[in-house]
Design brief:
Beta-Lactamase, 11 strands, 10 helices, alpha+beta, elongated
Length: about 325
């Protein structure tokens, strides 16, 4: 359970990510759009090389800070779920027999059943804004309960053994972060952090305690950066699906950037900057991996290359 130990150890740093970003920026690290203009009357090779290197340096530092911020948020969320999963009221499944009669109609146990577990879920939602839903799933994938209860009522499915977070927990026996999915209770994009709960008697799986991340929160964080000059920052999951987008008009669309080489490099644990064609335009793409618990996500900064060539132009 190395993931759990690492997450719990780093949880105290969970709120520091964005603060660190804002502090460093305020102390002088420029956003890419704040790059200094090219001095006039200089050698073309020098101008091209210097501009490229400045854009590369600024972009790579920017995405590194954003990756660290996201890692901290995910670690904090996982730590909250892991710590609460050890509570007796969360491990209690004495109401599971109700599912035989209620799962089809109520999509889980009744609202007034297992109040202590529902209260823990409510407390998590109140104290950790990044979660929009907290739920408990049985070992076979059947929904046991979900908070807010309205989300349970709105479920379009009752068994979630097909979800990647369920399969990840079953295969790894450890905390698992799933990729972006469309929620069965809200129809919105979300990603789920899931924690397995084992019986203290024989070590068998008794349930999965999970939280659905509110991706709108991550969208808002990026959009607060107020990028200019057609720059764009995206968080993407392991499959290239966009988790959050600095462009508000694109943030609610199910888009994939899996074809970008920058994404492929980041998912493979690399960081850097490359030139590539994005929507028919040559762009600079700075990328950095996000070591997202059991998974790899990525952050990319996409900015115009302004027609600059690394070699002299005729």
């Amino acid at each position: 359970m190395q993931n759990k130990n690492k997450v719990a150890k780093n949880a105290v740093h969970g709120t520091l990510g964005l603060t660190l970003l804002l502090l460093v920026l305020s102390l002088g690290i420029q956003t890419p759009s704040a790059a200094q203009p090219t001095p006039p009357n200089m050698d073309w090779n020098y101008i091209n090389t210097t501009t490229f290197e400045n854009s590369t340096f600024q972009g790579e530092n920017y995405v590194q800070l954003l990756a660290q911020s996201m890692e901290s948020k995910l670690q904090k969320g996982a730590a909250i779920l892991e710590l609460t999963s050890t509570l007796p009221e969360v491990k209690n499944i004495s109401y599971a027999n109700m599912l035989n009669n209620t799962i089809e109609q109520l999509k889980g146990i009744p609202q007034n059943a297992d109040i202590p577990k529902r209260q823990v879920a409510k407390d998590i939602l109140e104290k950790y804004d990044e979660f929009q839903v907290v739920f408990f799933v049985m070992p076979n994938g059947d929904m046991y309960m979900e908070e807010p209860y309205l989300r349970q009522e709105n479920l379009s499915k009752t068994n979630f053994a097909f979800r990647d977070y369920y399969k990840g927990v079953i295969n790894s026996h450890d905390t698992f972060l799933g990729n972006v999915i469309v929620s069965a209770s809200s129809g919105q994009n979300q990603a789920v952090i899931a924690v397995p709960i084992f019986s203290g008697v024989n070590g068998s799986l008794i349930g999965i305690w999970a939280g659905g991340l509110d991706l709108n929160d991550f969208n808002e964080d990026l959009q607060l950066l107020k990028l200019t000059n057609n720059e764009r920052i995206v968080y993407v999951d392991n499959l290239g699906q966009i988790v959050a987008d600095s462009e508000e008009q694109l943030s609610h669309q199910n888009k994939s950037i899996a074809s970008l080489q920058g994404f492929k490099n980041a998912i493979n644990g690399k960081s850097g900057t490359i030139k590539e064609i994005v929507n028919g335009t040559e762009m600079l793409v700075s990328y950095h991996p996000i070591r997202a618990l059991s998974n790899n996500w990525a952050v990319l900064l996409i900015q115009p290359y302004h027609g600059i060539s690394v070699s002299p132009s005729n």
